[in-house]
Please model this.
Amino acid sequence: MKIIIIILFLFITNNSFADHEPKKVLIILNEGFQIDEYFTPKKLFMDQGYQIVTASRYGGLVKPGKKYILDSNLVQTDLSFDQVKLDGYNAIAFVGGGGAWSDYFPNKKLHEILMQAVRKKEMIVGLICAATGLLATVNNLDGSSPQFKNRMVTGYQEVEGMLKFLGKVQYIGGDPEKPFVVEDGSLITARDPGSSKLFAETMIKRINLIKN
Model:
């Protein structure tokens, strides 16, 4: 009888700890990232008690766009793209910025990461502003195999044409005077830096529904 009680206690205790494990989010950065699109979601994620891991093309120190460069805005990333393994993460967020064109769009390793993420059950995938252009180029640099065809997305105006004509997505622009986010299943896209807070809040709402 005592053995049964001990086993039951251990089972309940282990499940209790599992339920309280912090959610884990991987944030992807580029050289030239937009600061609001990184720091705003990061703060809101941390307020939720999430564990945050950052990754960039080569790992190490990453600078924001030129007009944002201050020592306080530099980010020491934890991983390179080649070091990323998605096991254990509940969500992945791709930050926009001018470096998306070099660090994201042609990068085959990042294409692999994105596709693995969207195929994982109960993983939330978020892209904001210029990062959304990755939905057009992933495994589709020649336009012959759009991976997100007919998915509903929004994104930065400079990648709108890419998304529509290369990616074949259903692009939704929203009211330019208001923050705008589009949800399509576990895929969340945000239009611009002004949508950073709404982007993070939308991801949080979905992440908190996931049971670890």
